TrEMBL record:
This is Ferric reductase-like transmembrane domain-containing protein. The keyword Transmembrane helix applies. The chain crosses the membrane at residues 47-65, 86-105, 125-146, 158-176, 188-207. It is a multi-pass membrane protein. It comes from Paractinoplanes lichenicola. It comes from the Bacteria. Residues 213-312 form the FAD-binding FR-type domain. PROSITE patterns: FAD_FR.
Length: 441
């Protein structure tokens, strides 16, 4: 019998919420309307309720709730957030089309005139239309091709309009949505879901970060170049040993050094957390490029920690770490924290050339003092679908002899990480023993 995974639990919970919404629609006469000549409007109402439900689930997925973050990790939550967001958007489009056609048929009106009349004359509809336009902008900029043309900082700022779009729809539901206020159970459900979303955002995206930054007061201690375009930053602060972060995790960072401080960037720890904290950043844009210019004493604000690429379920035995480029950073911090014995750890480090290799001396130390087997995979990108450099055809079992019995940690760009994971699974490693962190957004 197949064992239910955490992902299955989330899917069941989302499905259950949609069933509740459907049941509330039925109790408010949805089926009677569906068979009584108002099929378009009734179907449109149901799709609108599903869209609202998924929109609020989408908000909760990225509300930074610690229990949820620890259970699933932010990269998996981000994927679910994206899927639920696109599903919610297209349900919303269908809702608008069907409601407009249904009202137009009843009033014997032109659909375009009917839509215009609804926007201008129905309570809350002008706000809802504004919210829908905000969501259109978010959806368009979330398409993979569009994201690749945007700076992370610009994309992140535009993405925040999703909150505006969601909350501009609320007055429309309160004033015009019979399924929202049609019965005490419906009112309790919708107010409860909205209240949970708002409370989670305020608590975990505002209050907790403010309190954490007030307590720890991080400041830049020093900036150290590591390789071409790669820079490490060391931070001091108050009681950093009490900061609830583990090796392999990351924060969203804001550097209070002038214009642009409001935009955050996600950077992983590149050393196991101790009395000082270190991150290592590759210059790939405005936010990451400014890191090399930071001055000693610059104040820093953080939000987090996030990520599930940790050693919380590793108690020893063979371990293989696979890094590509700047993906070495969280894996290097794991090397400092994991309780492996000499000879049990293997690091496969994929780099373009020697000049791009960071932490060579540090990795030499791990090899000499802790018995880590470090394998550098140097060379240009392969033209074929391979996680190895072009021209190499090594077997994973030869590079990491204990791979089949190992716990595996993978970090790097999305396409490379997917290829590396395929190779690991093909080598006989169960999915439960493969941990990934994708460097994408």
């Amino acid at each position: 019998m197949r064992i239910m995974t955490k992902g299955d639990v989330v899917a069941v919970a989302a499905g259950a919420s949609l069933l509740v919404v459907t049941a509330l629609w039925v109790s408010n006469g949805g089926l009677q309307d569906l068979t009584g000549g108002g099929a378009l409007s009734a179907t449109g109402r149901l799709l609108g309720l599903w869209a609202s439900d998924l929109l609020l689930i989408q908000v909760l997925l990225m509300a930074r709730i610690p229990l949820v973050e620890r259970a699933f990790g932010q990269d998996r939550l981000a994927r679910w957030h994206r899927w639920s967001g696109f599903a919610s958007f297209w349900l919303m489009v269908a809702h608008i089309v069907l409601i407009t056609l249904g009202y137009a048929a009843t009033a014997r009106n032109n659909p375009f005139r009917q839509l215009w009349d609804m926007i201008w004359n129905f309570p809350g509809m002008l706000l809802a239309a504004s919210g829908f336009l905000a969501l259109v902008m978010v959806v368009v900029t979330s398409i993979r091709a569009a994201r690749r043309k945007l700076r992370y900082e610009s994309w992140h700022l535009l993405h925040l309009y999703a909150y505006l779009g969601a909350f501009l729809a609320l007055p429309h539901q309160l004033w015009s949505g019979s399924d929202f206020v049609g019965s005490p159970p419906a009112t309790a459900y919708w107010w409860g879901l909205w209240g949970l979303a708002v409370a989670a955002i305020i608590a975990y995206r505002v209050v907790v970060p403010l309190l954490r930054n007030r307590r720890h007061r991080l400041v830049v201690d020093r900036v150290v170049p590591e390789a071409n375009g790669v820079t490490s930053v060391y931070f001091n602060g108050n009681d950093l040993h009490k900061l609830p972060v583990r090796a392999g995790q990351f924060f969203h960072w804001r550097f209070l050094d002038g214009p642009g401080w409001t935009r955050s960037n996600p950077f992983s720890l590149s050393a196991a957390p101790a009395e000082q904290i270190r991150i290592t950043v590759k210059d790939s844009g405005d936010g990451s490029g400014r890191v090399a210019t930071l001055k000693r004493g610059t104040r820093v604000l953080v939000e987090g920690p996030f990520g599930k690429l940790t050693g919380e379920d590793y108690a020893g035995g063979p371990v293989v770490l696979m890094a590509c480029g700047i993906g070495i950073t969280p894996l290097l911090s794991l090397l400092g924290e994991l309780p492996y014995a000499p000879g049990e750890a293997t690091l496969l480090y994929r780099v373009r050339d020697d000049a791009s290799t960071a932490f060579k001396q540090e990795l030499d130390w791990y090899a000499a003092e802790r018995g880590v087997r470090v394998v550098y995979l140097t060379g240009p990108r392969a033209r074929s679908r391979s996680w190895l450099p072009g021209g190499r055809t090594d077997e994973l079992a030869d590079l990491a002899p204990d791979i089949a019995a190992a716990r595996v940690y993978i970090c790097g760009p999305e396409e490379w990480a997917a290829q590396a994971r395929e190779a690991v699974r093909a080598a006989g490693v169960p999915a439960a023993r493969v941990h990934t962190e994708l460097f994408n957004w």
